[in-house]
Write a structure and sequence with these properties.
Keywords: Membrane, Transmembrane, Transmembrane helix. The protein is mainly alpha-helical and 327 residues long. Helix content is 57%, strand content 4%. Helix 9 runs antiparallel to helix 12.
Length: 327
């Protein structure tokens, strides 16, 4: 029941009740833009490979949302309800998965979201894909890791009040993460600087969660105050394809966007930066394989099977103690 409940609750996160938006996370538009722009922050040794595959990296960024109803454990990977665990949970929740399972149980964690831990798991999967030079998995995992990192930068992915359903603000989830970026992101400054190495990917994932959760009160309270002044004038109707949909009006969106004082742009920019940082870190930790060799090369299944076997043997080998300066 916990797993089915998580899927149902995640469907509401997407705005499938109340005002209609069909996308999750940053919306298809936001996730695709985050992944695409992250490519251009990579170093010369990586950017050729990623630019060659930028179409896939962009399009596949939304795949985790597409399978959220078909894969039982998928929904919980997109959020974490920090406030379920108490007022100080942002600082007291165990940062590492095994510690968290010991303290809360795995069923509880899956019921209220596993996003920061899943990001770390994806990092290790990407590193292993680099190690065996599996082109297909490198691209798949890079695209999907970018999706989860994007979710970690959305404030409403860190609270039980994810769609304003507790405070009478149904629809705010899609409003903040889809409507605002679609209307205003062409005006954003997305300059982030070059990708940088992350010493501890698990703590970096939690840092993103912290930044998002600290913004939750502003996201909700400012919209509630604005709604009181606009009343029903905050809605309008727009035609998309053959559908006429009830949406938040451009005037209301502009007013809310101004009140947030660049919050959406800052969270998108941080998501772009961290996505590239994770790709770069996985590549570094895999020994910096020559990606130019993979641009036009797809290893056979037999070759990949052999590489996976070698990696498994390497991971199973006993640890060799060395002096500190040799690590």
């Amino acid at each position: 029941m916990l797993k089915l409940s998580a899927i149902y609750r995640y469907s509401k996160r997407l705005g499938l009740i109340g005002i209609i938006f069909l996308f999750g996370g940053w919306g298809f538009f936001g996730h695709q833009r985050i992944n695409r722009l992250a490519v251009f922050t990579l170093p010369p040794e990586m950017i050729g490979f990623y630019k060659k595959n930028i179409g896939y990296i962009t399009e596949a960024s939304v795949n985790p949302d597409k399978r959220r109803f078909s894969v039982v454990d998928e929904a919980a990977r997109h959020y974490i309800d920090i406030d379920h665990y108490g007022d100080s949970a942002l600082y007291t929740l165990p940062r590492y998965w095994n510690d968290a399972v010991t303290k809360m149980t795995e069923d509880t964690l899956k019921a209220y979201g596993v996003l920061p831990w899943h990001i770390n798991r994806m990092y290790y999967s990407l590193k292993n894909a680099f190690l065996i030079r599996d082109t297909e998995r490198i691209l798949k995992l890079s695209a999907e890791l970018g999706h989860y990192i994007g979710d970690a930068h959305v404030p409403l992915h860190t609270t039980e009040n994810y769609n304003g359903q507790i405070t009478g603000q149904e629809g705010i989830h899609a409003f903040w993460e889809s409507r605002l970026p679609e209307l205003f992101s062409d005006e954003y400054n997305f300059f982030t600087g070059r990708a940088q190495y992350i010493p501890n990917p698990q703590l970096a994932a939690w840092k993103a969660i912290e930044g998002s959760h600290l913004a939750v009160d502003s996201v909700l309270m400012e919209e509630k105050k604005l709604a009181a002044s606009f009343g029903e004038h905050r809605y309008s109707f727009e035609t998309k394809g053959r559908q006429t949909l009830k949406v938040y009006s451009r005037e209301y969106a502009l007013a809310y966007h101004k009140i947030l004082q660049g919050m959406v742009a800052r969270r998108m920019r941080a998501a772009i930066k961290l996505t590239a940082d994770f790709w770069y870190t996985a590549w570094i930790d895999a020994g910096q394989p020559d990606l130019s060799e993979l641009i036009f090369y797809a290893p056979s299944q037999d070759e990949l099977k052999l590489r996976r076997k070698e990696l498994e043997e390497q991971n199973a080998a006993p640890e060799i103690r060395t002096r500190a300066h040799e690590i």
